[in-house]
């Protein structure tokens, strides 16, 4: 049985690209993917999607079979069984990457559930044991926790993990999905920085969800009657900080 050697595939891809005088960015532009994706292929970190094999082979002037074998062949045609084995190996590797992605998604969703429970439990303690009333919490703790729950649920359960191809071809700074919208002025969204943006936003919201009730309680313990401006400032930093985290990640991996 034939298996695809990722290291040989990546080295062959890099050699063919350089022979044709193309940069990773130029090859990526032809395939409508990010240059980071091409870099991962060449470093044997992943394989292209099956749908990209034919256009990738055409760009590099080899057959799909040669591409999967990681070497040029002198034979004009390979046995059908060998070709089928190579294609099946490619499909199996793609399936493994899909399984890994599903496992990461389940871990994210579990983390969201645990953080949500922790935040809600702390809020309940503030109401039932801490001696604070509903009116004291609704414009601060409850508002922040509610927004974190709403956007955190979308980011962990509903957001698209991959942007449409037009984001890699054009300079677009906004993304919308149903009632949710992200606008990162000055940041070009693409499939290179999008996973990092999502990770940064998820991380920020989950941390805020867990820590904000305790932070709010600490402010009131240290400052018996903190001015409204202080509570408002802390709440704004907690909520809007997610955009700052997204912009930093977007610029870094743009």
What do these coordinates show?
The structure is a single chain. The protein is mainly α and 254 residues long. The protein has eleven helices and two strands; from the N terminus they run αααααααααββαα. The protein has a two-stranded antiparallel ribbon with strand order 1-2. A hairpin with a 2-residue loop joins strand 1 and strand 2. Helix 2 packs across helix 3, helix 8 runs antiparallel to helix 10 and helix 10 runs antiparallel to helix 11. The longest helix is centred in the middle third of the chain and has 49 residues.
How would you summarize what this structure contains?
The protein has about 250 residues and is mainly α.
Note the topology.
Layout: H1 6-19, H2 24-31, H3 35-42, H4 53-60, H5 64-69, H6 80-128, H7 134-138, H8 141-158, H9 166-169, E1 174-177, E2 180-183, H10 194-222, H11 228-252
Antiparallel strand pairs: 1-2
Helix pairs in contact: 2-3, 6-8, 6-10, 8-10, 10-11
Element order: H for helix, E for strand:
HHHHHHHHHEEHH
Number of separate strands:
2
Structural class: mainly alpha
Counted by DSSP, the helix tally is 11
Q: How helical, in percent, are the residues?
A: 55-70%
- Which residue ranges are poorly predicted, with pLDDT under 50 across at least 5 consecutive positions? none
Taken as a percent bin, the fraction of beta residues is under 5%
Shape: elongated
Strand order of the largest sheet: 1-2
Radius of gyration from CA coordinates = 24 Å
Largest sheet: 2 strands, antiparallel
Distance between the termini: 40 Å
> What's the average pLDDT?
85
């Amino acid at each position: 049985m034939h298996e695809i050697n990722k290291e040989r595939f990546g080295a062959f891809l890099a050699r063919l690209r350089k022979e044709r005088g193309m940069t990773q960015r130029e090859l990526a532009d032809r395939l409508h993917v990010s240059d980071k994706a091409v870099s991962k292929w060449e470093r044997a970190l992943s394989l292209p999607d099956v749908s990209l094999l034919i256009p990738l082979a055409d760009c590099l002037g080899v057959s799909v079979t040669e591409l999967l074998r990681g070497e040029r062949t002198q034979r004009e045609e390979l046995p059908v069984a060998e070709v089928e084995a190579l294609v099946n190996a490619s499909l199996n590797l793609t399936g493994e990457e899909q399984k890994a992605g599903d496992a990461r998604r389940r871990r994210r969703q579990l983390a969201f559930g645990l953080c949500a429970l922790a935040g809600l439990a702390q809020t309940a303690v503030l109401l039932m044991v801490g001696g604070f009333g509903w009116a004291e919490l609704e414009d601060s703790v409850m508002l922040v926790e509610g927004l974190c729950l709403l956007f955190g649920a979308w980011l962990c359960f509903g957001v698209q993990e991959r942007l449409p191809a037009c984001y890699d071809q054009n300079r677009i700074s906004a993304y919308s999905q149903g009632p949710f919208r992200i606008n990162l002025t000055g940041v070009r969204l693409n499939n290179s920085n999008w996973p990092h943006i999502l990770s940064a936003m998820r991380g920020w919201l989950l941390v805020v969800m867990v820590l904000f009730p305790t932070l709010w309680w600490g402010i009131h313990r240290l400052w018996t009657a903190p001015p409204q401006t202080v509570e408002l400032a802390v709440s704004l930093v907690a909520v809007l900080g997610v955009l700052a985290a997204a912009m930093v990640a977007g610029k870094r991996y743009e």
